[in-house]
């Protein structure tokens, strides 16, 4: 099962082409992960040991030589920026299309906490802890992003934007996440002008997110 942050159209086909069983796009919601596990994990009608059967040793994801086989049932693959780290078998034909990028004009609140609740549950203390950790992390990454932009280090700026993009989307700071995605793209392309144009929008949105968290 591929778990990837790449939600662009065609990623599912890429997973299918290299032999995946199924596909999840990050951030993965608990309900979707649960459905995926129920879909692919075998169900046990009874306890085999209680019924007198000998216990079965779990299969190792490694072959006798210590290498991970290209096709291993039940293997979950996480993606990297350069592709998937491992593969399984074939993606079902009824796989759902990838999610579309949200329209920034439609994102009326700096942080949609419901996004985070869908990921980790609705325990208020846990939500506050996650948001607190996000704020500390975002402040650090934003400072590094500013410094990279000021120094004209576009690739470094893009890498910082990538990190903040993922965490922003996970906590529900969707507009901030989309601006980070745009800055990531500009950074990868070495487009200093685009980075300079996006930076003020980034600062404004980040300030909005921080203001929201102050009041939450």
Description of the molecule:
This protein is mainly alpha-helical and 216 residues long. The protein is built from seven helices and four strands, in the order βαβαββααααα. The protein has helices spanning 11-17, 30-40, 113-120, 124-150, 154-171, 174-188, 192-215, and strands at 2-4, 23-25, 77-80, 83-84. A four-stranded mixed beta sheet has the order 2-1-3-4, covered by helices on one side. α1 links the parallel β1 and β2 (23-25). α5 (154-171) packs antiparallel against α6 (174-188). The longest helix has 27 residues, at 124-150. The radius of gyration is 21 Å and the shape is flat.
Number of helices: 7
Specify the structural class.
mainly alpha
For the termini, the CA-CA separation is 36 Å
What is the gyration radius calculated from CA atoms? Answer: 21 Å
Largest sheet: 4 strands, mixed
Shape: flat
Mean pLDDT: 77
Q: Report the uncertain regions.
A: 55-106
| Biggest β-sheet: strands ordered side by side in the sheet | 2-1-3-4
**Portion of residues within helices:** 40-55%
Relative strand content: 5-15%
Note the run of SSEs as H and E: EHEHEEHHHHH
Number of strands: 4
Salient structural properties:
single chain, flat, 51% helix, 216 residues, mainly alpha, four-stranded mixed sheet
């Amino acid at each position: 099962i591929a778990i990837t942050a790449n939600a662009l159209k065609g990623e599912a086909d890429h997973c299918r082409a290299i032999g995946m069983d199924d596909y999840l796009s990050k951030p993965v919601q608990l309900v979707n992960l649960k459905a995926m596990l129920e879909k692919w994990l075998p169900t046990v009608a009874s306890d085999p040991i209680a019924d007198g059967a000998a216990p079965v040793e779990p299969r190792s994801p490694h072959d006798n030589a210590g290498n991970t086989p290209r096709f291993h049932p039940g293997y979950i693959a996480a993606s990297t920026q350069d592709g998937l780290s491992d593969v399984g078998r074939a993606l079902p034909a009824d796989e759902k299309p990838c999610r579309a990028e949200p329209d920034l004009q439609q994102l009326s609140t700096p942080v949609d906490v419901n996004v985070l609740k869908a990921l980790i549950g609705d325990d208020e203390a846990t939500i506050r802890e996650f948001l607190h950790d996000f704020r500390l992390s975002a402040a650090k990454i934003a400072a590094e992003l500013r410094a990279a932009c000021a120094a004209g280090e576009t690739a470094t700026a893009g890498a910082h934007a990538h990190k903040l993009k993922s965490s922003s989307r996970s906590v529900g700071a969707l507009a901030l996440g989309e601006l980070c995605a745009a800055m990531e793209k500009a950074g990868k392309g070495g487009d200093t002008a685009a980075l300079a144009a996006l930076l003020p929008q980034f600062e404004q949105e980040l300030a909005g997110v921080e203001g929201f968290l102050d009041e939450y």
